Structures are given as structure tokens and as C-alpha cells.
Amino acid sequence: MNTKSILVSFILFFSLTMISCKSDTKNKSNDVKEKTYTIEPLTTKIGWTAYKTTSKIPVKGEFTKINVTPKSASTAKEALNNMEFSIPVSSLFSNNDARDIKLKQLFFGVMDATELLSGTIHLTSESEGNVDLKMNGITKSFPINYTISGQMVTMTGKLNLGNWNAQKAIESLNVACSELHKGEDGISKTWNEVQIDVATYLKIN
């Protein structure tokens, strides 16, 4: 084989190799999909802590169901930001049947149109935000702190029930639980303050 034939063969081989590499790169590029995050209601836990007696004894419980407006985003933060939700009051659970009935009937039942607690989450920085919560026919905001670690998100916040004009509901519950809410000082007290703790494991699509 002469020099010219060798050169032509080399050029042909090099060209075929480059075309093959470009094709492989293109196929690999097409195979890479951008992951998106979504809220998964089944892996979301909403806990609450209320307080009784003048010594502020905590009473803990949770809501076992949450509904969310479907939303996907390229980051966990954006999946949460401006997310709308609703929580059926009927899903309240404190591991005490008698307490659950009182809370549903004599607390939330006294409020105006509160079969559902609904709202929107707003994240204003990398660790803080607020929730616009509708309860007792009133929409008010309360601050939250949050952390994101991979797919795991935790949020915590405190709300003052007085901001939702819930004093009538608090008094109704305190009357029904008068003896249970008495401390060593003999004073029966139900606090306006409630702490909310949320943990959710985001789904990656």
C-alpha cells in the first residue's frame, strides 16, 4: 500500500471515529434528565404541640392527612415555595380518643367554617419564611424556620391563636377540660400558643 492510500485510510478511520464519538455524546446527553422535586403527602408529617396549666405542660398530636396542589420544581426550595395546602380537621390525632373528640367538636367545631385548615407556604430566605394560614374564616401569617437536607425538609413555627380570633374556641375547650387543665396552683389554663412541626420527604421524579 502506497503512502497516499495509507493517508486516505487514516483520514477515513479518524472521521468515522469522530462521528461515532459525537453520536455517543449526543445520546448520553439526551439520556440525562433534569430531576424535579415534588411534595409527597404520604411522607409528610404535621405535628402540633398545645399547652395546658400555668406551668405550660405540652400536649402533642398530629394531623394525619394533608392535601397539596401538585407542583414540581428543579430545587427542593422551589417545590415548597408558594405551595398551597389544606388539612382536614377530621384527621386530627393525639392518641387519646376523648381528647380528639373535644378538640374536633368543642374547639374547631366552635370556629367558623373550619372543616379544613388551608394556606400557602412562602420561603423568604435560605432558612426562614412564613405561612398564610386560613382558620376560623380568617387568613393570617405566622413565621417559620426550615432546613433542607437532600430530599428531607423540616419546618417549625409558632402561632398565637388570638390572631385568628379563636378565644371563644379556647374558652369552650377550657370549660370542657377544666379539671384536666388545672395545675398544682388549682388554676385551669389553656394557652393561646401552638407550635407546629412539619417533616416531609420530597419525591424526586
Molecular structure report:
Helices cover 27% and strands 38% of the residues. 20% of the residues are buried. The protein is elongated. With 205 residues, the protein is α+β, with helices and mostly antiparallel strands. The protein has helices spanning 3-31, 76-80, 97-107, 167-176; strands at 37-38, 44-52, 57-63, 67-68, 72-73, 83-88, 92-93, 116-123, 128-135, 138-149, 152-160, 193-201, 203-204. It has two domains: 1-32; 37-204, Beta Barrel (Lipocalin). The strands form two sheets. Strands 4-6-8-9-10-11-12-2-3-7 form a ten-stranded antiparallel sheet. Strands 5-1-13 form a three-stranded antiparallel sheet. Strand 9 and strand 10 form a beta hairpin.
Q: What distinguishing features does this structure have?
A:
205 residues; alpha+beta; Lipocalin; 10-stranded antiparallel β-sheet
What's the CATH H-level superfamily name of the largest domain?
Lipid/polyisoprenoid-binding, YceI-like
- The percent of residues in helical segments reads 25-40%
Q: From the coordinates shown, what is the CATH architecture of the largest domain?
A: Beta Barrel
Per the CATH scheme, the topology name of the largest domain is Lipocalin
Number of helical elements: 4
Q: How many separate structural domains?
A: 2
Structural class: alpha+beta
Strand content: 35-45%
Rg (CA only): 28 Å
Task: Please describe the topology of this protein.
Layout: H1 3-31, E1 37-38, E2 44-52, E3 57-63, E4 67-68, E5 72-73, H2 76-80, E6 83-88, E7 92-93, H3 97-107, E8 116-123, E9 128-135, E10 138-149, E11 152-160, H4 167-176, E12 193-201, E13 203-204
Antiparallel strand pairs: 1-5, 1-13, 2-3, 2-12, 3-7, 4-6, 6-8, 8-9, 9-10, 10-11, 11-12
Helix pairs in contact: 3-4
